[in-house]
Amino acid sequence: AIAGSPEVAAGGFKIDLSKLFGAPDAIEIAAQERDVELVAVGRDAVGLNVGIPKRQDGKPHGPKDDLDSLMDQLDDLGL
User: Fold this and answer.
1) Which residues fall within 8 angstroms of residue 12, CB to CB, at 6 or more apart?
2) How high is the mean pLDDT of the chain?
3) Which residues of the chain have pLDDT under 50?
């Protein structure tokens, strides 16, 4: 069912189509809105390069596990 349909109101399964069709996430939207305001006052847009902390930044790299190896193999397939 699609969000807003009668089936969803009855407690059925719901899918967020924005994720399916590649809508930007909240952080991307916030950065775009900030850039619009920066440009409006004559400053340069900064995108995601300023003010957005990297979640994995500074995390030490440990040895690869089975999941890492599997993901590497999938990446190598070039699908």
Assistant:
1) 1
2) 82
3) none
